[in-house]
Structures are given as C-alpha cells and as structure tokens.
UniProtKB/TrEMBL annotation:
Protein name (record): Acriflavin resistance protein
Sequence intervals crossing the membrane: 28-47
Organism ancestry: Bacteria, Pseudomonadati, Myxococcota, Myxococcia, Myxococcales
Ranges of residues in domain Multidrug resistance protein MdtA-like barrel-sandwich hybrid: 84-225
Native species: Archangium gephyra
Single GO MF annotation: efflux transmembrane transporter activity
Length: 409
C-alpha cells in the first residue's frame, strides 16, 4: 500500500533538471537571428567604409628632362647684397630712400645728426691755424738765430767776440731750428686731426657702396644707431641693398653628387613663381666648404640673361644638364604628360589610371609613350594637375568613395 502511494507521488514530482534545456531549445532561433543581424551590420560597415589611397598629380614634363644629370632645390640670391649701416654712432635724422628705390653708387641713403662732428671739425681746423702760426713764429726765430750765428762766426774769425759768444749763438741757432721742426710736426699732426674730423663728419652721410635696389628699410628717422653690426644681422642697419643685376641661384647639392658637376656646366632654372618657364643658366662656382649638418655644398648657378620680375629669395629648382638644350627646345615639352609608373595598371587589356574626383574614383584609359625612370610618359591621358591613385588595388570600383592619404601615410 505504501509502495503504491510512493509511485503515485513520484509521477507527480517535477523534473527541474529538464526545464532549462527546454528553455534553451525554445530560444535558439532568437540567438541565431541576432548573430545574423550583427554580421550584416559589420559587413555593411566594412563595405561602406571609404578605403584610403595615395595619390599623385599628373604633371607636364619640363624642358631638358632627358638631358638632366641631377636636380637640386635652391633660391635666388645676389652676388652683391648688403645691409647698409653707418660707420659712426648717431641719431638718424633723414632716410632719403624707400623700399623699391633704385640707387646709384655714391648716392645719399641717409644722414645722421652731425652737430657734434661739425664742432670737432671746426675745432680741428682752428688747431691747424694755430699750429701754422706757431710754425711761422718758430721759422722767424730760427731765421734770426741763423743770421746771428753767421755774424758771430765772422766776428769770431776777426777775433772781435769771445769763444763763449760764438758757442751761445750756435746753441741759439740749434734750439730755434729744433723748435721750427717741432712746430712743423705739430702743424702736420693738426692737419691729420682735421682730416680725421672731416672724415668723421663725412660718415654722418651714409652713401650707397654700389648701384642696386633698396629691398628693405630697417630704420626710420629718430633711431639711434650703432656702427655696423658684426655679431647680429641688421643691428644698426638702415636699409638692405641688393644688386638685381647680379642675381643667380644658390642650390644645395649633396656631397656625393658634387663629382657630377663642373664649372660652366649647362643648367636650367625653374622658378616657383614662373613654373611654366625655363631659364638657361650655367654653373658659376661651387663653394669650397661642406655643411656638416646637412652634408651639402652650395652651388652658384648664373643666369645667361637675368629674367625680368625675378627677385631675391624666390624659390627655384635647378636641373644640371649633361649637354646644353637648344633655345627652340625650351618652347616645347620632351613628353606631354608624366605619372608614376605604379599608377598605370592593366584592365581588360588596356592601360588605365584611377582618377580621384570629388572624393570618388573613376577609371580612365591612357596611352603610354615610354617609361622614364620611375615614371611613364603618356601620349594621352588626364589633364595636368589631375590626381591619380598610386599603386591601386583590386578593391576599387568606378564611383566608389575613397579617402586620400597624406604623403607618407
């Protein structure tokens, strides 16, 4: 009886170990659905993200590229360029020129307060006059003493005067002669002092040491200036003067490239201000010193004819040539267009580049003329300045958005 009752109770007992399993079985479609949605979201984010690309600009080939031995960057300088400062200290009372003025050699640039210098010059001239009078008096005394000595010698020969009187006359003549010489020396010293005072007075007028153009005005009236500065540039300067007729390009060339250059070697200069023009030049000199910090030497390149509008400190690039380029060749390009060789890829049997425009890429066919170094010359392709993708990968599709990476990125 008890056993039968226990069996009936066992049937009514709930099996709690099976309950969680039934719940998990009921929820598995929900977990699968969430995983699918998450995968779709991640996939769409990856697909929709704009890939980063490196770009280069299509450029026109410069004249003389085929003959270029090496190239170097530099800037326009002048063989004659100076900060003009006074030779004496003083207060500036006049600046007679302004920036941009052309001046001749010896032209007055500025004047200093000359009142003290004029006083010193007048005093020196007065001392010259005084010394001249002293010399005249000494000469008169010396002349009288010499005459007295002559009479004393005659009287001594006639035994009219004593030996002592003769010796006294000789002493007076010798002393007066010495005084005459001293007065003459004092006059000469006074004259030299007067010349020095006049020179100091002339230094209050600052003149141009050479013909040139005023490129900077460094001081105005009222400034108190010291003599020409040695340790710091422009301290005490009034104007900066440049000879625009002696312009050249100073380029930095690495020391291992120097053996490839020689004096008189032909070159072409390309100025940043006039990128579409080439100017004929040649190597004028190589500075006989190496910049230890940069391992470069300065090479001076002289223009064959100084082009109008060129100014000091303009940026420039110099192409050192294997041989001179004829003048008529400067009017045309060696090849129409240049792009990095890695930008040109094969697609469907034709050469193409990927052009970046408005943040999207498009495929554009090109016609390759020849390979030049790490570039290719294009006989047909995008306009100069167009951005093309460098080393494109297979993920690019027409119309896809891209993100341009900076250089080195």
């Amino acid at each position: 009886m008890a056993e039968a009752q226990a069996q009936r109770l066992a049937v009514l007992k709930i099996d709690r170990t099976a309950r969680p399993r039934r719940k998990l079985l009921r929820r598995w479609p929900l977990w699968v659905g969430l995983a699918v949605v998450l995968a779709l979201v991640v996939g769409m984010a990856v697909v929709g993200r704009a890939p980063g690309v490196r770009v280069a600009e299509v450029r026109e080939a410069r004249p003389g590229e085929q003959q270029t031995e090496l190239s170097a960057a530099g800037y326009v300088s002048s063989r004659r360029r100076s900060v003009i400062a006074p030779q004496v200290a003083g207060r500036l009372v006049e600046v007679a020129v302004d920036e941009g003025d052309a001046v001749e050699k010896g032209q007055v640039l500025a004047r200093l307060d000359d009142r003290d210098a004029r006083v010193m010059a007048a005093r020196s001239r007065a001392e010259v006059r005084a010394a001249s009078q002293r010399l005249a008096a000494a000469r008169a005394t010396a002349t009288r003493a010499r005459n007295d000595l002559g009479r004393a010698e005659q009287l001594a020969r006639a035994q009219v005067v004593t030996r002592a009187s003769l010796e006294e006359a000789q002493a007076m003549a010798s002393a007066s002669s010495a005084e005459e010489q001293a007065a003459a020396a004092q006059l000469e010293a006074a004259r030299e002092a007067a010349r020095a005072a006049d020179l100091q007075l002339s230094h209050t007028v600052v003149r141009a040491p050479f013909a040139g153009t005023v490129v900077r005005k460094l001081a105005d009236e009222g400034a108190v200036l010291a003599p020409a500065a040695i340790e710091q540039e422009n301290i005490g300067g009034i104007v900066e003067l440049v000879d625009l007729g002696a312009l050249e390009v100073e380029a930095e060339v690495s020391e291992e490239q120097l053996p490839r250059l020689e004096l008189g070697q032909p070159a072409l200069v390309f100025l940043d201000a006039y990128p579409d023009q080439a100017f004929v030049a040649k190597v004028r000199s190589v500075r006989p010193a190496i910049d230890r910090s940069k391992a470069t030497a300065d090479v001076n390149v002289a223009f064959e004819e100084i082009p109008p509008g060129v100014l000091p400190d303009m940026g420039a690039r110099v192409a050192f040539l294997k041989e001179a380029v004829p003048a008529e060749a400067l009017a045309k390009q060696d090849a129409a267009l240049r792009v990095p060789a890695s930008a040109v890829v094969q697609n469907g049997g034709e050469s193409v580049v990927w052009v970046v425009q408005d943040g999207k890429v498009k495929r554009q066919p090109v016609r390759v003329a020849e390979k030049v170094g790490d570039e290719v010359a294009l006989a047909q392709g995008p306009e100069p300045g167009t951005q093309v993708v460098v080393a494109p990968n297979g993920s690019l599709r027409p119309g896809r958005k891209v993100k341009v990476r900076p250089e080195g990125g």
